[in-house]
Structures are given as C-alpha cells and as structure tokens.
Amino acid sequence: MRDNKLLTGSMVIIAVVVVGFVLRIAKPVLFPFCLALLFYFILSPVLDGLVRLRIPKPVAIVVIVLFFFLALYLMGVMFYSSGKAFSAQLHQYGDRVNEVQDYLRERMAAWNVKWEPTAMLGSLDVNKIGSFLLSSLGSFVSFISNLFLIFLFLVFMLAGRGKITVKVDRAFSGRQARKINQILSNIDGQVQKYLAIKTIISVLTALVAWLVLALFKLDFAIVFAFLIFLFNYIPNIGSVISTLAPVLFAFFQFGSVWPALWILILILVVDNLFSNVLEPKLMGRGLGLSPLAVLFSLFFWGWLWGIPGMILAVPITAVIKIICGNIPSLRFVESILSS
Fold it and tell me: How many CB atoms lie within 10 A of CB 334?
C-alpha cells in the first residue's frame, strides 16, 4: 500500500512537471488559444442574443468578431501611443526626483531623524525605467500582432457553439448524454457569468478611475486607467499595483502630497465600491478563490507566460474551479481552490 501511494505521488509530481514544461514550450500557441477561449465565453451571450433575434449565425459571428477586434485593436493602439509618449517624457521627471530628495531631507532634519534619501532615490534611473517600459510595450505590440491567431481560434469556437450537445447525444446513451450535457451547460453558464461580470466590473472601474484622474489633470490618465482595467483581474495584488502607480506619478507630477492623497482616496473608494460591494452581489456566493490558490496561480502562470500569464492566472483558476465543481470526481479540487 505504501509503495502504491509513493508511486502515485511520484507520478503526479512527474505529470505536473511535464505539463508545466509543455505549457511553457507551447506558449506561442496555447496563450492565444486560452485568450480566445476566455473571449469566447465573454462573447457567447452576445452570439446567443443575436441568434434569438433571427440573425443568421454566420453573419452574427462576423459582426461580433469584427466589432470586438476593432475595439481591441483601437484600444491597444491608443494604449501603446500613450505609453510610448509616457516613456519618452519620463526623463523630464528626473528633476522631480531631486526635488523629492530635498524635501525628504529637510523633513527628516526637522524631525531629527538621520536618514539619507539620496541612496535610495538616487538609484532610480529614469532612463532605465523608460527602457523597461518601452520593452514592455514592445511585448504588447507582439501581442497585438498575434490577434490574427486569436481571431482564428475565436471564429472556430463561436462557429462550433451548440454542436457539442448533438455530438454527446450521438456518442452516449440517452440518460448518460443528458447528464453530460447538463454538466456542460452548467459549466458554460457559470463561466460566462463569471467572466462577463468580471469584465464589466473591470471596465466600469477603469472608466470611473479615468474620470477621477482626468479631473485632477493627471498626465497619461488613459494609461493608468488601462492598467487598472488589466490588473483588476488580479485580486488584492493587482489593485495595490494599479492604485499606487497613478498615486506615485501624481506625487512627482504635482510636487505635492495633497493631489496624490486625494487621488489615492478616490481610487480606493471606487475600487472598493465596485470590487467589494457590487461584484459580490452580482457574482453570488460560491465563486471565491483561496488566497493561497490565487498566489500559487500567479506564480505558476507568471513563470509560464510572464505578465500576460499573471493577468490570465485568476480567470483560468476560476474556470478550473467551476469545471471541477461540476464533476463529482473532481470536487475535491474545487474545495482546495475555494476560499
């Protein structure tokens, strides 16, 4: 018995390592596929609605995909142009860094505290930061260039929607087919609900945050709003990063604590209103993820696919949890992932 358990444990470890290696090697194909799958679940209700309006399915698919990728492409171009201008002008904020050093040095001297900010702030090389941002934008452009592959995956997924029920009926007996189709229907509905609500909440949070930043006339408000939208898919950690970025930038831009403090307060209010009040009411109970599961998924998918993997980590984990919750033999995995 002990030998069997040891063998099973060893096989599981080997399988995890092999799967991780395959996922890492197959990133050029699997990442667009996973992204297309998430888009499929988000756009499926739109397709179903258009079909119910008696619009031919091929026409509905073409309209959905064209409008969706046009919006995605325009959003990407706008973000890239704003981010490139932000990186180009970043060196101008070097003077702000020196002013902050002088301010902190004076305050520390007034409080009789021996602390030299030059060692820490002086190590900040804005040119290196700008180069890093430009390289990150380059990877974003490569993502935009992969839109064609995502487009192909998404078209075939939408075209095949609804056909799996017929195939299950042909492959299995009546009672077993009904049970499998019920499980697939539950998974489809729950994943659609989760991704649709999460995306809507992220868009609303980003829009209201952009209005707040634009009200304070913060430079590159659209860039920070886009970051808030993306990092809203990462609970807790993503909110901290997307909130601190515009706050720190406001401090350097205005050279004062008060605008940055007001921006911090308002963004925190907006984030808590949408993420902690509205989202749980729309989501309902039972979709919460364990903080440990979230942290592990961030490390795992971040190691596999970098920052894009970290953004997709929580949605992928939530989808896995939903799938396991609908399969009796895998419900222990749902219990492990639940909060």
Answer: 17
Whole-model pTM: value is 0.73
Q: How far apart are the first and last CA of the chain?
A: 33
Closest to 310 in 3D by CA, of 230, 242, 204: 230
Residue at 85: amino acid letter: A
How many contiguous H segments (helices) and E segments (strands) does the chain have?
15, 0
Structure letter (DSSP) for residue 289: B
CB-based contacts of 337, cutoff 8 Å, min separation 6: 289, 290, 293, 317, 320, 321, 324
Measure the CA–CA gap between 231 and 117, rounded to whole angstroms: 30
Q: What are the CA-CA distances from residue 82 to residues 44, 86, 125 (Å)?
A: 31, 6, 21
Checking 204-209 for CB contacts under 8 A at 24+ apart, the result is 204/274, 205/229, 205/232, 205/270, 205/271, 205/274, 205/275, 206/232, 208/270, 208/274, 209/246, 209/267, 209/270, 209/271
Residue 305: CB atoms within 10 A of its CB come to 19
- Rounded Cα distance between 88 and 218, Å, is 16
Give the mean pLDDT per block of 10 residues along the chain (339 residues).
61 73 77 84 86 88 86 75 69 64 66 54 49 50 65 85 80 80 82 84 91 88 85 78 84 80 90 83 67 81 78 81 79 77
273, two tokens: 């209103």
Report the C-alpha gap between 67 and 60 in whole angstroms.
11
Question: Tokens 């002088």, residue?
Answer: 102
Interatomic CA distance for residues 262 and 206, integer angstroms:
17
